[in-house]
Amino acid sequence: MSVTSVKSSAVGPPVPQSVSAVKNIAISSENYKYLQQEIYRESGIVLDEDKHYLLESRLMPVARAAQMSSLDELCTRLRAKTSPGLARSVIEALTTNETLFFRDMAPFEALRLHMLPELLAKKPQKLAIWSAAASSGQEAYSIAMLIKEYGIGGCPVDILGTDLSEQILERAREAKYVQFEVNRGLPAAYLVKYFKREGLDWQLKADLRAMVKFKRFDLRQSMLGLGKFDIVFCRNVLIYFDVDTKVKILTQILSVLNPGGFLLLGGAETTLNLHDKFERIAVGSTVVYRKG
């Protein structure tokens, strides 16, 4: 999701595991390079040379689940290409991004105060919004809650959430979150209004779930089959790609944006020096990009 490395703070905390479950946590240089190549081939993500700890901490649970004694043994099995499920588990472990409700807040304020009023002034038949790195669904459902609060009235809104990981999308579709997750960014009033308690978890109500559809999608693929959009959230994902891939993704996003449509990127991301077809607009403490 410059040639930018995967940053451990951006992809979420490593899952704590017992060190004794994997006898040899360290991974050889040869196998590290092999995984760099495989991760890039399967996901486009660039993993820099100094991310051994991130790689090892993410793959420890995979090795343990497969009853392997070392990460090098895991790589040996991957090289044999006899376990496609194992290969998927490795990619899933390394591409699942941290997310939270109303992350950074400023982009959602820009949606409420600038983008929605401008788009609705054109009296569209419907609005289409894409959360391009949906992870476990918090961003897409934050958009849905904001739309509900805004009170669009008779204009239908379609929200699509996509991610490379089918496993994480299953969590998004379920829309059930633990207390820690709803404590991160979600206003207490929204928790009471849009969720119901189920045991120790919080279940998003059915009317909000119905507003969002989720689909597995690789951002490097052609986007034309996804339809056209008025707003694209592609936040905190471009930082994981090399320059050529960033340019390709931005070009494709431009092709699926309706005229006057908006793109939102992460705080550390920009179209500058990558693509000149987006108009940069400062809105409060954030920046949005509009297609001319």
From TrEMBL:
Please name the GO terms that the record assigns under molecular function: protein-glutamate O-methyltransferase activity
Per the record, the GO terms for biological process are:
methylation
SUPFAM superfamilies hit by this protein: Chemotaxis receptor methyltransferase CheR, N-terminal domain, S-adenosyl-L-methionine-dependent methyltransferases
> What Gene3D superfamilies would the database entry show?
Chemotaxis receptor methyltransferase CheR, N-terminal domain, Vaccinia Virus protein VP39
Annotated EC: 2.1.1.80
Q: Which CDD domains match?
A: AdoMet_MTases (cd02440)
Record-annotated CheR-type methyltransferase domain positions: 20-292
Its top-level enzyme class, in one word, is transferase
The catalysed reaction is: L-glutamyl-[protein] + S-adenosyl-L-methionine = [protein]-L-glutamate 5-O-methyl ester + S-adenosyl-L-homocysteine
Q: Which UniProt keywords apply?
A: Methyltransferase, S-adenosyl-L-methionine, Transferase
List, alphabetically, the InterPro entries matched: Bact_Chemotaxis_MeTrfase, CheR_C, CheR_MeTrfase, CheR_N, CheR_N_sf, SAM-dependent_MTases_sf
Q: Name one Pfam family in it.
A: CheR
| Name this protein carries in UniProt | protein-glutamate O-methyltransferase
